[in-house]
Records
---
Amino acid sequence: MTERGTPEPVPLATLLADLWVRADVDREASRAPWLAAGFDDPAEALYDLVRDEPERALEVVVLILERHGQRAEVRERVGAGPLQALLRGHAARTIDALERAAPRLAGVRGALEFVIDARLDDGVRRRLRALRR
């Protein structure tokens, strides 16, 4: 709570993580929550980050898995979606960060099961397979 007794603002990455799950996994029909937060489409916003700011995108992906990774459906959608896109577009940075996050987050390891690794180079593919174990 702030000094005025109002709730602390939610960090943008956390907000996007939660809205992405509501929009992409839960297929929530109402767009009002994300429109009110300034997102036309949370999935599009996350893919924009994958393209333009991969470190921030990975932060959001890790937050999704921290907050919602107990759900198999979330792990599947993250692995086959933004995580795969990060690995394909920014393999070295992403695999390094995943190696740091995977030991503390079962959701990361679970999401990696859904990444199709055929288009990754051999070194990244080996590291990815090691993380899946």
Note: The radius of gyration is 15 Å.
---
Amino acid sequence: MSRTRSIRRWVLIAVSVGTALWAVAQLSAGIVITNSPWPVTGFPMFKNTRSVAYHTDIFVTTKSGQTRQLQPHEFDLPRMNAAFKHLYTTPLKNHPPVATPGGKERFGRIIADWNRRHSGDPAVSAKLQLKVFSLDKDKKGVLATRSKRISVYTPVRWP
């Protein structure tokens, strides 16, 4: 019996030391912010800074001929949240954003929801506009609060 207890004790010590070493390696990787995915995962999401920011707007032309920029409070956002997801692809360096498969239909549901709330002057056409801003750094390397617009895309239109 004492031999079995001794083996169990050494196994427990080995597992405990191994777990402690693994935890120290994870913590070290987090501090160093390594990009290697194995055997110790770092946190690369904090290593690279973004160079651009995106801002989306929805513009509609109503039956009376007015052009309006829609505001978030004009929608039933909890119900329409799924429709707002993935309307367009993320713009890449040489590829402008385009509507995703089903994006135009989801955008149509968003506009139909808006039309139900504004039946007196419904939208007859709409577009989603994506503005891309460059994020410049100041002399200290901190992202500037002001940025300049570098591109405007219209990846989704309705009808």
Note: The beta strands are 52-62, 67-69, 123-134, 148-158.
